[in-house]
Amino acid sequence: MTTRLTFFIIIFFIILPLKAGETFTVVIDAGHGGGNKGAVHENFEEKELTLQIALKLKTLFAGRSVTAIFTRTTDIELPPKKRAEQIESLKPDLFISLHFNSQSFITTNRGFEIYYPADSLISEPAEMVKYFHRANCSFHYGSVFKELYLDSAIFKIWSLPFNMFTQKHDLLLFDETTVPGLLLEIAYLTSPEDRACIENNEFINDIAKFIFEAVKKSSQEKCY
To answer: How many structural domains compose the chain?
Structure first.
């Protein structure tokens, strides 16, 4: 065996355990809270629904190989800037911001939506590369979520349609963080069909399970 081949074999077996032993950190951000109720329709409040899902995720992630950190686990008001600062200081592999949608005059809009950060057209080349990489990794993780969603109970059993997967501009949580992130608009509170799902606790359970599985798969297909 040549010295060169021996060298590459040694490097391979050094790097492989390192990759296998890497941890994946996700920040779960339950949107709104406290005096900021978010979308409200009839007896549904966005802040309560996002917190319900976050708490179910906290249980699912307990003791797992993925490290999950939560911006809030109680009904507290947390300004977007504080959330962004917390996420940026933690430098997770991915953050997920949980939300529910609404429309002022339209009740026909419904379904699940995924948003990810837009590319940043700033002047410094090094900064442009950093934000392009963030957008690219966010798209990668968003694609994992989309693929799993179309095979999930949410889509197949609850019949909650997949509505959108696109970049989001002018969102402070994306504008003031440099790590991959996704904003999930889980359903429309103003849609009678979506509300029929939301009011069932098993639907909320299935949403949490779907997000958990999508994060777990994302950790196995980590973007570098």
So the answer is: 1
Tell me: the pLDDT tens digits for 87-137? Answer: 999 999 999 999 999 998 878 899 999 999 988 666 577 777 778 889 999
Range of the domain at 125: 23-220
User: Does 6 map to a domain?
Assistant: no
C-alpha 116/C-alpha 97 separation (Å) is 10
Are the C-beta atoms of 101 and 185 separated by less than 8 Å? yes
CATH code of the domain containing 101: 3.40.630.40
Q: Copy the structure tokens of residue 16.
A: 């492989």
Q: For residue range 173-209, what is the model confidence (pLDDT) as tens digits?
A: 999 999 999 999 999 999 999 999 999 999 999 999 9
Q: Go through 10-31 and write b for each residue having 16 or more CB atoms within 10 A of its CB, e for each that does not.
A: eeeeeeeeeeeeeebbbbbbbb
What is the four-CA torsion angle of 121, 127, 132, 134, rounded to 10 degrees? -130
Residue 7 falls inside a structural domain: no
